[in-house]
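Preliminary data (for renewal application), nicotinamide-adenine-dinucleotide complex.
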Amino acid sequence: MRESRYKAAIIGTGGISKAHAGALAAHADRVELVAAVDIDGDRARDFADQHGVPQTFTDPEVMLARVQPDIVHVCTPPGLHAEQSVAAMEAGAWVLCEKPLCASLAEMDRIEAGEAATGNYTSSVFQWRFGSGGRHLKELMRKEAMGRLLVANVLTTWYRGDPYFAVRWRSTWKAAVGGCTVVHGIHIMDFALWLIGEWREIRAMMATLAHDIEVENVSMASVRFEDGVMASFSNSILSPRQESVLRLDFADATVEMTRNIYTYGNQDWSYSTWEGSPHADAVKEWGSLPPNVPASHVTQVGSFLDSRDRNERPEVSGADIRGTIEFLTAFYKSAVEGRPVHRGEIRPGDPWYRLMNGQFQLLDEAAA
Ligand SMILES: NC(=O)c1ccc[n+]([C@@H]2O[C@H](COP(=O)([O-])OP(=O)(O)OC[C@H]3O[C@@H](n4cnc5c(N)ncnc54)[C@H](O)[C@@H]3O)[C@@H](O)[C@H]2O)c1
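Predicted structure:
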């Protein structure tokens, strides 16, 4: 660990910034939150008062020039993420950016080019990858302990009503990039992709069934993976009783993570097998989890600081996140074009490379 503390800044002091401030406070021996930025100056000052932050700004560029932070947390609406992350890396910082990391594969390439040019890194927040339950399962899967994975069911059934959409950007393609697919289901879908591996083909549908919003509030897809696994992904923000569910059926056991919404702990996992199975004893062993580490911003920030100390690429960056951005783009492309999309087909030259949600007129308007 280095002797002095890192200087961190937060850009965007709305809803999720509190989780970042809390995570930084949990690692206060290693990092100090020295600046907060929001285009709404009053909001930045309120946030600073609550979290003991000495300086506030309304312009990220001014903050980067004056403060020269070691680490920047980007907590603004998704349409701004790539631009602000690249600017922070160019100013010398490592970046921890909220999900979705960016709005297109083109922006993903810009971020990776920014990393190569500066030697700094941008990591995407995906706190679900950092809990003990997920780490334990990934290790069992690496060892193929439970036999082949055959079937996966991945469910986000959340509720977002009028108060949520009263914040205008959340309902627009341009600022939010999308709805239940890229803003809400993204957590457990990224988690499932991280566990399962390379997908091959996706067939998707989506709709906006309620509320006066541009973006989708229900989306569903069938996905075939490279090794043959068949998976179903279902995202809704129209579901009054909220739940997130991951169910993986291996040859010898079923693993389920359920009953939680935004995160999970060891208590949310169950391992089982069929009645009379010869794996009854083994399943007890597989289901014995290590000490509980919740999937949280605190855990991911700790891992990010470890990588910074070692000057090594942090988890959930570069190739480790590109696959999720490609999957989300393919999800929208399949839903809009009404046909299967294969991994690898969206490349520079394909209009979908420019914008994952397919709202190309936004780019054309911007260029006009
Ligand atoms: N990881 C999670 O569990 C989680 C949970 C909720 C939200 N998020 C993500 O966090 C991000 C922010 O979501 P939120 O709900 O906190 O939004 P929010 O609207 O509550 O906050 C965003 C803030 O950014 C500010 N802002 C807008 N443009 C800016 C600019 N150019 N420069 C500086 N500040 C600017 C706004 O004034 C606002 O205060 C989104 O990408 C969202 O998907 C992640």
